[in-house]
Amino acid sequence: MPLRLYNTLGRTTEVFTPRKPGEAGFYGCGPTVYNFAHIGNLRAYVTHDILTRVLRDRGYQVNHVMNITDVGHLSGDNDLGEDKMVKSAAERGKSVLEIAEFYTNAFFNDTNRMNIIRPTVVCKATEHINEMIALIKRIEDNAYTYTAGGNLYFDISRFPRYGDLAQLRMDDLKAGARTDLDKNKRNPGDFVLWFTKSKFENQALVWDSPWGRGYPGWHIECSAMSIKYLGEQFDIHAGGIDHVPIHHTNEIAQSEGATGKTPWVRYWVHNEFLVLDRGKMSKSSGGFLTLQSLVDKGYDPLDYRYFLIGGHYRSQLQFSWDSLESARNSRKSLLEKFRSLADKTNPVEPTDLAGLADAAAASPAVKTRLTAFNEALDDDLSTPRALAELWGLLKDTTINPREALGGALQMDRILALGLEKALEKTETPQEKARNEDPALAAEIEGLIAQRREAKAKRDFTRADAIRAELDQRGIILEDTKTGTVWRFKQNIDLPTPL
Ligand code: AMP
Ligand code: ZN
Question: For ligand 1, is residue 283 a contact (CB within 6 Å)?
Fold first, then answer.
């Protein structure tokens, strides 16, 4: 069966058929870089990562574009509240650009640690103001706009398909409760394309435009940048479920309003939320968990990845420390299982990966497992089932270890739980010291040999003196069944030469 994705537009699961055979154009809404990403945001990027990896694995050349919002995102998605970037910069006594740079780097540090592949194109809003202005002009030329209070608004009443994605009814939108306090709006659903003086007096970043000196609304950046890098119509657009009723609805209205081409995007993929046991997680409400806060408690970023892919991206996932702990234990067992298979076969060197892949390819039993694994992912990216298939493969005692290892590594090209790293031999402290300073290690081992001889001759005074001498120089000896092992005491990088 081919890859099928649940399409929010139409609310059905559909076979993925790209516009151009063999290529997939994919835009995923990126972070607003006014703070660290919280672990809920990272759920969205893991979803995008799985999707990209599956598309690549199915042979598509994927152009994955992600924006960095460094201007224009107000605390309410519907033009309400304060500018997130400006507020954060003021609180921290930094410039908006400093804040953006710091949190952009922090974001990629998090995504790297979670094995999330960097998108093909990463584009900053502040570097695409001309594209936004050009797109707004097209929307204006097509008579979808009006000016009020110095701002340029999109008039949703002129766009009959407005709300199709979210299945909103135009009548309801017009009659909707007036929670929106922007008195300039003719309709509560209208939204700003370009702000001028009306909203904030001391806006840090402003640009000249046909509508006055000001800055863009938040939604227009995604339309402008996705069109620039993926064309006027493209395959997939993804983001969190919260974006359906406002952000993505507005993106569609703007893009189709400008180009006149419909559908702008063929498949809309939305991940459900990660929620805390005590309720919704949000960046602006303060108390949120970052990846680093999990690391500080001793979790590996990939434990969190394991936790996330244990749920289907379209189901709400509840975060708790207990469930993260059980994800950590499961990943630990997975790695142990994998290593134990590696120990059963000839020494597996990381360079032997091609050999393992060949072994897997020649095995009908592995092929059956891989087929089930791929079918799970083709079925709207069912990572929980795919993960179960990986476990099934590793536990299948009828499959020889080399074949199982090869099959598991192939599965991990998508799940990315760090199996390949587990193949790397970990150095003992003794091996590490030998590699770092062979001459010193040889001297130490010479003394250890003398101690062994002294003990054999029952000259315990001499044996103890050697141990004491080594101890003084920061070397600890441990007598084991297979011989004496040694290591440097902690915090002593280089002992004084013997
Ligand atoms: P933001 O940086 O706030 O623009 O959000 C970045 C991405 O994270 C968007 O795709 C949001 O829809 C998504 N997102 C926000 N909160 C959560 C959450 N609690 N769970 C899953 N995704 C979320
Ligand atoms: Zn967006």
Answer: yes
